[in-house]
Amino acid sequence: MTAKPQIAAFPKGWIKDLVAPDGLSIYEWIDMAGAMEIPGLEMYNNFRDFKDPTNWPKIRKYVEAAGMTIPMMCCSPDFTIPDPELRQKQVEHEIHSIRMSAELGAKLCRVLSGQRRKDITREQGMGYVVDSIEKCLVEAEKVGVTLVIENHYKDDFWTEPEFAQMMDVFVDLVSRIDSPIFGVQFDPSNAIAAGEDPLELLEKVKHRVISIGASDRYLANGTIEDLRAQEGGTAGYVSFFKHGVIGKGLNDYDAIFTTLKGVGFSGWVSIEDGVDGMEQMIESANFLKRKINEIWA
After folding, report:
1. What is the pLDDT of residue 41?
2. Which tens digit of pLDDT belongs to each residue from 25-63?
3. Among residues 9, 10, 96, which one has the least CA distance to residue 56?
4. What are the tens digits of pLDDT across the range 97-148?
5. 163 with 119: CB under 8 angstroms?
6. Which domain holds residue 260?
7. H helix intervals, the chain
8. Residue 61 falls within a domain, yes or no?
9. Beta-carbon neighbour count of residue 119 at 10 Å?
């Protein structure tokens, strides 16, 4: 019998506050997260309280004392920078984050491809990204961390969408890195943002999926075509493509989880919600608990 996936949560709605110099502390977020009654908390490498490495063991102990673990670290490296020195700085920051992940007890650390820059070709970008990730894998292997690449839309702090946003590029990129400590973090909403079918993408990468970024987006107005037309040149997400309660948006979690169960998936499912408050995040957690128990019964 396949083990059931476990649920973690990422503080999407509080990320800017947790990064800000005088914002929410990580300890306050951990206390808040207890209301979801889940076993895991995904972290972000640029949270203010992570800047000082002496805080890492304290944060890990605080999470564990609350009856949870830190399974995953969210990072957003930008590996498509043409300048080799600046690109190496991104590699070094990711390596730093991999070490942080290990110290915090996280077995998974996210990588991305980078921004879809207009001054590089697809093949140039592929070369930059594959080379950068392979450099990071050397450190990941040393400390026992697995790297997961997300089919991403756009980091909160980026002006351009993801280089490997589109399915053909993403699948090509994943196929070029053959490592037992490298796989996919699947986010169905990001496939929708690309104007593509999440289930079609999942079918292509299902054997490489290690973790799930669980979100459920909806269009407050406009269409996917409107979204695509406005996605470049400004920081963050297009305003009318909203995070909502998981189970109430555009994704078919019955089909997603059934596909994943079929390939023996039993990894972490991390909630990406909370932009409208903790009550909605609790609702998302409850939906995922019910759905996992139902599919993996």
Report:
1. 98
2. 999 999 999 999 999 999 999 999 999 999 999 999 999
3. 96
4. 999 999 999 999 999 999 999 999 999 999 999 999 999 999 999 999 999 9
5. no
6. 6-295
7. 15-19, 26-33, 56-65, 84-104, 122-143, 167-175, 188-193, 198-205, 224-230, 253-262, 278-295
8. yes
9. 7
**pLDDT of 236 higher than 60:** no
Quick one: which of 133, 191, 130, 203 has its CA closest to 166?
A: 191
Which residues neighbour 59 within 8 Å (Cβ) at sequence distance 6 or greater? 26, 27, 30, 49, 50, 70, 104
198 near 257, Cβ under 8 Å?
Answer: no
pTM reported for the whole predicted model: 0.92
The total of structural domains in the chain comes to 1
Domain CATH for 120: 3.20.20.150
156 CB-side CA count, 13 A: 13
Q: Are 161 and 197 in contact (CB under 8 A)?
A: no
Backbone angles phi, psi at 60, to 5 degrees: -60, -45
The answer to whether position 1 is within a domain reads no
Residue whose C-alpha is closest to residue 105's, from 41, 151, 193: 41
Q: Does residue 284 contact residue 247 with C-beta atoms inside 8 Å?
A: yes
